Amino acid sequence: MPESRNRDKANYTAPAEKRAQKVSSGNAAWFAPVMVGLMLLGLAWVVTFYITHQTYPVPAIGRWNLAVGFALMMSGFMMTTRWK
């Protein structure tokens, strides 16, 4: 039976260390306060609208004040999906 050839392959060498990469460990410092602030601002907007018998915070837009308040709250809740 014929013998197989010897391979001229060097021994295993470990790969060179990769350059240190900046690892993102979370969100920016402003992210959580803005998220909570939007939710609280929206809640305050809606509560103010109901307490003042639907006249404030912006009398000119009437019931659209509810849409503004809920939009602010939903913006805060949408930010919670990106929170790390």
From TrEMBL:
This is Cell division protein CrgA. One of its GO terms (cellular component) is plasma membrane. InterPro entries: CrgA. The keyword Cell cycle applies. Keywords: Cell cycle, Cell division, Cell membrane, Membrane, Transmembrane, Transmembrane helix. The chain crosses the membrane at residues 28-52, 64-83. It holds the Pfam family CrgA. It comes from the Bacteria. HAMAP family: CrgA (MF_00631). One of its GO terms (biological process) is cell division. It is a multi-pass membrane protein. The gene is crgA. Involved in cell division. Belongs to the CrgA family. It is found in: Cell membrane.
